[in-house]
Amino acid sequence: MLRSFLMLAAFFGFTGVGLGAFAAHGLKNRLTPEYLAIFHTGVTYQLVHALALFGVALLATQLQGRLVAWAGISFSIGILLFSGSLYLLTTVGIGKLGIITPFGGLAFLIGWLCLGLAAWRLQPTA
Fold it and tell me: Which label site among 14, 45, 95, 105 has the fewest CB atoms less than 10 Å from its CB?
């Protein structure tokens, strides 16, 4: 699990930076300001959750259990659905892709809920 989540964090971090640069330099004259802001939202959520995946990978070395694994899986699915749908919506212009975005947001919420539940189950150390 450590290797998988670290590789996903690195991949999503790398592509998030690349897509952010692409939007700032390659898309700023091709997209409307509204679509550029939507694309930027996708990049922001991708980068935030790439860092969350990195944290999940490190946490998985200390905590065993399904909740931590499900958090990482949910964050990955969230990036693909939420950010991916925003990228496609803005660059391809298919408005119906917007129906996918909330499912990505739900996956993000599930990931954070799993992390919270994993923390809740920890035994106090004091």
Answer: 95
* Dihedral sign of CA atoms 45, 48, 52, 53 in order: positive
CA distance 78 to 18: 19
pLDDT tens digits for 47-96? 999 999 999 999 999 888 899 999 999 999 999 999 999 999 999 988 88
Q: Which residues are CB-neighbours of 43 under 8 A, at least 6 positions away? A: 16, 19, 20, 23, 83
Angle formed by the axes of helices 66-78 and 101-120, to 10°?
Answer: 160
Strand, helix or coil for residue 71? helix
Write down how long the chain is. Answer: 126
The rounded distance, in Å, linking the Cα atoms of 45 and 83 is 7
